[in-house]
Amino acid sequence: MEPLVKIEGLKKTYRQGMLEVPALQGIDLKIRKGDFLAFAGPSGSGKTTLLNLVGGLMSPTEGRVLIEGQDLAELSPSALSDLRLRRIGFIFQAYNLIPVLTAYENTEFVMMLQKVDETVRREKCMGLLKTVGLEGMENRYPRELSGGQQQRVAIARAIVGEPAIVLADEPTANLDSATAAQLLDTMEMLNREKQATFIFSTHDPAVMQRAKTLVRLRDGMIESVENAACAG
Amino acid sequence: MFKLAWRNLWRRKRRTAITVLSITIGVGLCLFYTGLGDGMYGQVISMAVRSGSGHLVLENRSYRDDQVLKHTIQASDELIRSVKAVEGLEGYSLRISAPGMVSTSYGTVGGGFDAVRPDLDKEFSLLNRNLVEGRYLESGRDMIIGTELARKLKVNIGSKVVLTAQDRDGETVQDLFRVVGTFRTRSDMMDGFYFQITLDQAREMLGLGPDDLTQVGVYLEDRHLQDEARDYLERCEPVKASGAAVVPWQEVLSDLANYIEVDTASNYIFQILLFLVILAGVLNTVLMSVMERTYEFGVMLSIGMSRMRLLLMVVVECAMLAAIGTVCGAALGWAENALLYRYPIDLSSYLPDATVGGYFMDMALQMNLTLPHFITTLALVFVMILIVGVYPAFKAARIEPVDALHSL
Ligand SMILES: Nc1ncnc2c1ncn2[C@@H]1O[C@H](COP(=O)(O)OP(=O)(O)OP(=O)(O)O)[C@@H](O)[C@H]1O
Ligand SMILES: [Mg+2]
């Protein structure tokens, strides 16, 4: 079966004036549909860079990323943003949400861009916010929500458009361990029930444990790939 | 898209209010300045026109180049009826203008006079409004003169003076007049060298026929009706038949017209500068609001909003701001105009008397915004703000999502 994401010889070098910072030095990886995959590694190992490359937010120095067989480098800017809109959901470490929009409106935003009908939007967003445990908070603004609640809105928004992949860069980094565990419960549940593929990064061992596939990075290279026994 | 933009503005009330306010004030300022200009010229023109020619003058085709009594027109009943039919007519004046000398036992002063029909001129005559002593012309040998001229000749109300002039054949003729009133316009020329007598007496003295005139002055309620009135008169059969030319005040008072033209040009330059200052202010506010939202735009771009849509969104927001601001500014400008039209700010006690192109000007700031100026100013400001808004929009659309997300 064709992998959902195929990463081939991926390299990324940041240029900082005269300095060249090698962030990724040759990554090869295939990610199956339905995976719950974590990139782990110390700070500076290249997790964020890798996620941004997979999400098409930046282009690699060398190598390529294929999503559902499509090479991202071959897409025009508008096709790329369309791919992000329809096939990829994003969750960032913090400040995910648009401050002037309510939880509901933040979730709805993606579907609005997808030009989904209003009634469908309403039903789906309300349902999803309920699923992630935010029933009754739909009309709150981000500043009126806790960090964990904000991340739940971000998850709802990331998956409401039914993307093939949800990319999450350290989604639990700003949360305490109990809240982080709850958030992971929600992600796992969505992974199981909606067959959404999650790719996230973390340096929290507790979070790594929950991954089906754990990819350890070090100095921009893959150190190891572990498949959880149960996922085998 | 409109809903999205509208919501963005509505949810950011403070920022929106600041921007709208800056546009409103800008527009109000532009209109204020334009209105003052219009008011000032309106004042000067109406004053000049009232003391001189009228907005339009019917006169013999040769009169402009050779102003002698040979070049008269015949004021037939049909001609006068045509003049009366002019749209927006405030009044008309039947005149004989000529140079003349006034003498008393104290001396002689050369000047110029208009012989008019008191019943026609009384209504709108600037001299009637500026009488210092005595009364306006009524009949017979009545004469009114400027205070300065009266001083030089040492005459009072009731004094007799001798007028010397040339009749239509160039012969020198003299006649006796009685000063019935003195006027002060504060224009040196008018007060020192100008006087008026009655038309009937002038015709008798100068040997002219009962219909002979040098000019018919046409006074309009609104100077902007001038071109239409001119077209109309030029097409009128009786006017054509009389062989009269229809001359606008700009030709009769060409010095004043030139002066206003030059002054308007320099005004435009100032106005453009004012405009730029205002636009810079607006640009700054819009740019700031875009910068503030870098992170938000980064999120929007990364979750799949296209750059084109983001650009459009910011442009639409800006257009809405511009529209609201322009409407508020228009209201402000209108209010300013209404207020300063009715209650001009009188500066005459602070500033010395001033003349514009030889005509005395009331030192009162009066706004009298003309509709075309009102509309062009608004349209111009609106379009300029739109153009100014495009730059921040492009800036927003060029944001790199990765950098933007790093920026906090
Ligand atoms: N915009 C940039 N310009 C220059 N160097 C960068 C840039 N972004 C990242 N780097 C460098 O690239 C390397 C990988 O960075 P990256 O952010 O991918 O690491 P990370 O694993 O996400 O780290 P962390 O756990 O701290 O988030 C680091 O050495 C970092 O300094
Ligand atoms: Mg990182």
From TrEMBL, chain B:
The keyword Cell membrane applies. Keywords: Cell membrane, Membrane, Transmembrane, Transmembrane helix. Its main location: membrane. It is found in: Cell membrane. Residues 16-234 form the MacB-like periplasmic core domain. It is a multi-pass membrane protein. It holds the Pfam family FtsX. One of its GO terms (cellular component) is plasma membrane protein complex. Residues 269-401 form the ABC3 transporter permease C-terminal domain. It comes from the Bacteria. Signal peptide: none annotated. One of its GO terms (biological process) is lipoprotein localization to outer membrane. The chain crosses the membrane at residues 268-290, 310-334, 371-394. Belongs to the ABC-4 integral membrane protein family. LolC/E subfamily. This is ABC transporter permease. The lineage of its organism: Bacteria, Pseudomonadati, Acidobacteriota, Candidatus Polarisedimenticolia, Candidatus Polarisedimenticolales.
